[in-house]
Amino acid sequence: MTSALSLSHSHSSPEEDSPVLQIWGKTPLKGHVTISGAKNSALVLLAGSLLCSGSCRLRNVPSLVDVSLICEILVALGVKVARQGDALVLDASDLTSSKAPYELVSQLRASFFVTGPLLARLGVARVPLPGGCSIGDRPVDLHVKGLQALGADVQIEHGMVNAYIRGGRKRLTGARIYLDFPSVGATENIMMAATLAEGETLIENAAQEPEVVDLANFCRAMGARIRGDGTNRIVIDGVPALHEADYMVVPDRIEAGTFLIAGAITRSEIMLSPVVPDHLTAVIAKLKESGISVVSDAPNQLRVIPASSYRGTDIETLPFPGFPTDMQAPFMSLLTVAEGNSMISETLFENRLQHVAELNRMGADIKLKGNIAVVRGVPKLSGAPVLATDLRASAALVVAGLAAEGMTTIQGLHHLDRGYEHLEDKLRGLGAKLQRVHESTALSAPGNSEETVPSPLAECASENTPSDPLSALI
Ligand SMILES: CC(=O)N[C@H]1[C@@H](OP(=O)(O)OP(=O)(O)OC[C@H]2O[C@@H](n3ccc(=O)[nH]c3=O)[C@H](O)[C@@H]2O)O[C@H](CO)[C@@H](O)[C@@H]1O
Ligand SMILES: C=C(OP(=O)(O)O)C(=O)O
User: What is the phi/psi pair of residue 10, to 5°?
Assistant: First the structure.
């Protein structure tokens, strides 16, 4: 196995000569799109690989900036990481550090998921408070309370979470933990820590998200004893060690949902696979309520059927199986051009409606009152220069751009690159007209006429395609 010593990630940061994404809207889409492995599963599974005393192989890992960053954190902790096609091989047999580097952890929320596994494996974890999308306050108190209940002493000083097992014990101790809120990350962190604890842990009011179930499946593949995942009551019987495993990451339900919206908003029939339709129940139900059909021709496939017009609907984001907050922004784009009004309540994050101003710039009619957006459907959107403010906001602007008249230019692509694998190639494969160019060379006027649409040659230009963030993992 080759150790990945240098994992430079070549994503676009805001400081560089920022690339922008130009989209020429109103082009119908058609065909099939392959859905990648789930970002939010892959990230926590990669953190979970720290629990293994040997080496694990994770397949269907998306090539994303966030994945690259978490791999860099693992390498800093002593994990040997090697890439084999869409798989990553992770050898955590000899961990050399319990301290995660600030400059990496500060870039993504999922980095904090190494805390539980590190504590369980080494008896100590030193992890800075995490970064991630700026969509709210995002404290880690529930993670901390859970780890404390398992027998950890946790101090937060100078932005660093220092945790070690109390009383010089070698293992954490199983406990009964009630979560004030079914936090995805806290459930995952506590569940991972508990796999190696002595005795039984019960997590009550646990998150039920598919990514939690995927993590439980991966841990079970390594020999963990977990039951109840997918319900709000998870029971973990600790074992002394976890062993090697080969595991495949579940398909990305948020990417799949985003493509359903792309089909619906462009009035196009597109097919998606692989998907787990049950992971998209709330999104499909809301599409149907709006008058858009989604059918499943095969167990792992979905097809969105275009409707010439569709109506508004109300949405409230909730923990799974409720409507996912990660789909709120793209769904809002769809509702901007629905007939009638819609009300969208964002209940999970207090600052996750920043895309409203950008959609209004494109001609939408959305009014904000606290965490509620009232959308009045308009006949059309028009292309405009817009700024992506977070990951799902950027996806919302992409789907809006696909439907808008003229050209939309999206800035802030470093958000998009965190979470959508090969998005531009996938959209181009469906017939969309878009290209990534450097801001300095971008055509500035919005709503440009036909001659500005890229030629087939320009669309294929490799300089317009973001390079593979995992390319250094060889
Ligand atoms: C990497 C990853 O998997 N990210 C996902 C994960 O984020 P993340 O795990 O951060 O989301 P949580 O479920 O923990 O957060 C939900 C709510 O709980 C609050 N909270 C959370 C933890 C805590 O200790 N204290 C606390 O108050 C948060 O501020 C938020 O208001 O689930 C979110 C909710 O589905 C998704 O939007 C994110 O895409
Ligand atoms: C909010 C997200 O990611 P993160 O939790 O890593 O910020 C997301 O995936 O939509």
Answer: -100, 35
Q: Determine if ligand 1 sits within 6 Å of the CB of residue 361.
A: no
How does pLDDT run across 70-80, given as a tens digit for each residue? Answer: 999 999 999 99
Give yes or no: 71 in active site: no
Q: Where are the domains of the chain?
A: 19-36+252-464, 39-234
Q: Are 278 and 232 in contact (CB under 8 A)?
A: no
Tell me which of 56, 133, 219, 460 is the catalytic residue.
133
Name which residue sits closest to atom 12 of ligand 1, judged by CA. 183
* Identity of the amino acid at 227: R
CATH code, residues 19-36+252-464: 3.65.10.10
With a 6 A CB cut-off, is 432 part of the ligand 2 pocket? no
- d(C-alpha 18, C-alpha 20), whole Å: 6
Ligand 2 atom having least distance to the Cα of 132: 7
* Index of the ligand 2 atom closest to the CA of residue 325: 10
Q: How far apart are CA 299 and CA 28, in angstroms?
A: 26
pLDDT digits (tens, 9 = 90+) for 84-126: 988 999 999 999 999 999 999 998 999 999 999 999 999 999 9
Where would I find the beta strands (DSSP E) of 265-403?
270-273, 293-295, 302-305, 315-316, 341-345, 365-369, 372-376, 385-387
Q: DSSP letter at 62?
A: -
Q: Does the complex come out with an ipTM higher than 0.95? A: yes
In 221-316, the DSSP E strands lie at 225-229, 232-237, 245-248, 270-273, 293-295, 302-305, 315-316
Q: Which amino acid is at 393?
A: A
Mapping DSSP to helix (H, G, I), strand (E, B) and coil, where does residue 314 land? coil
Fold that domain 39-234 belongs to in CATH: UDP-n-acetylglucosamine1-carboxyvinyl-transferase; Chain (3.65.10)
128 lines ligand 2 (CB under 6 A): no
